[in-house]
Sequence to fold (343 residues):
Amino acid sequence: MSPSRRSNAVRALLALACAGACGAASAQVVLTASSWLPPSHTLSETQKDWCSQLEQKTAGKAKCNILPRAVAAPPATFDAVRNGLADLSFTVHGYTPGRFITTQMAELPFLGDSSEATSVGYQRVYAKQPAFAAEHQGVKVLAVFTHGPGIVFNTKRPIVKVDDLAGLKFRVGGGMVNEISKALGMNATLKPATESYELLSTGVMDGTLFPAESVESFKIDKIVKYATTFPGGLYNTSFVFMMNQAKYDALPADIKKAVDELSGETAARQFGRGWDKVDRRGMAFMQASGVQFSKADPAFVKAVAGKTAPLEDTWAKAAEGKGLKDAKKVLGDYRAEVKKLQQ
Fold:
């Protein structure tokens, strides 16, 4: 081969090599993101904002494809992400009864008045206890968080004492709230939040347990007539924001670093802060719609606390069975974190 032909061949090989390397370097990572809630819901919006921040942080090397509809019903979302039907989503732990035990810690009564505080405190405790992560095998947990303080809504009458709960049928979301409702003698049925309008409007259910935001989100403001609030909330709901583990493991190092920086406490705070905003709007919305509010007095709170206190012992024993060491202390640490964050 002549020197000129050899030189041309080398240049051609270098060009091919460069094209392959450049193509690999410029390939964009696309994460499919699914939400079982409407696009206008705060959780859908927060997930979208998180995706936008990832795209910005990676200078466009990573982006999300927000799917037009959910890849699975709410109770099946965890497995859908684990199995790769979507790369990114969130779900309620309690939608799959009996599957998640340690996470019920964040659902006990009277934990906090702010979603941001309960979410960030939850994430801090989660990060220190491997037993929480052990219940999430198959997905990369980006953050755990909670909604705002739980309220009792109904269509029939004011509820100002435990006895007022009797004779009414309530929708609950599952998890610890189901146990709380049983302890209070409520007739409760486990159903996803997305079914609330149909259940209440048809009279199948008389009430629901929700944070303030959900009355507007699920369009039940013209159906519910009465609301009872509790200091710190009657309950909370535990959520997980997650990514498919294989997808996360395959991310280039720089994109993985960006995902990590946007996860944990950063994401928990983002979800919590968004929920607090819509809770405030929801309260104003309900007041404008004429929903009659009752604030649980000390006697009512004491009665609820007495009936639900055994749930802490039950949870602690079950959580320790799942590997959470000294569960009561972990719960105490969580309460201390929330209190500190609310000051």
